[in-house]
Fold:
Amino acid sequence: MIRTDFTELFGVEHPILCGGMTGLGTAQLISAVANAGALGFLTALTQPSPEALAKEIARTRELTDKPFGVNLTILPTISPVPYDEYRAAIIESGITVVETAGSSPEPHLPDFHAAGVKVIHKATGVRHAVSAANKGVDAISIDGFECAGHPGEDDVPGLVLIPAAVAALDIPVIASGGIATGAGLVAALALGASAVNMGTRFIATEEAPVHENVKKQIVANNERDTLIVFREFHNSARVARNSISEQIAEISKQPGATFADIAHLASGARGRDAVLARGEMEEGMWWASQSQGLINDIDSVSNVVNTIMRDALAVITTRLASTVVSVS
Structure:
């Protein structure tokens, strides 16, 4: 067993998270993560209303008696999101840990902390992490350039970003981006992190609520099968490489291109309906990290977590001992 500041602070068995993933962070997956001894996050905005979120929290509790949290991603939207009502639903449901992402969590911190809710904020740069820590979050999930989703605009990979964040902070740091193995967990701990956050690895599990074709594609893909899109619009995102993401990248490079030119291809609804739900892998954009190159099977969440922990211990006790000739 590996105990860290993270496992002690959040009362979980293993230093592993399944962070918020839109459309995937539902009771089916997150209860399995919790039952495996890791910390999973329902995604608040996957639910169409605060009332629906409260029901999903209750449904998750029917499937596990272990800790889990809720992700609240704070982003500007065309249609206003009732964030205050989602926050109230989280608190009233008795959730004890929240993962925030996107804009500053500051407006939500007083209510969360008054209710005893610990807040993990996801950041893509040290300066953003320090800012969130100064505002009072309890831990930082630092997202390296390898990650799926939005890695920011600085292009700093985890090998540099994780220790840089650890050096600048005095709260637990969670390493995020490109991690899918026990060796990755050990490397993150060696760099000063207290836990690791995985998304893509948990998509390739039996419990993940996506089409089987998505899981098989992750296993088939290698570390080069992603693309950075939206860079021209200062909203960089790492997605799986397919005909749609390649079209998006090509159109975006054209002089004078705007997001409107690729909106029909990049639609989240299109990706969720065509790819995640129907398994039409070339019909929409979908998110994946470079960790695809490290994922070789579709397994249960329990087996994934247990394998990572077993392999991490083997790296610490055996592989390093056999690799390092001597220490003096």
User: Anything to note?
Assistant: The longest strand covers residues 69-74.
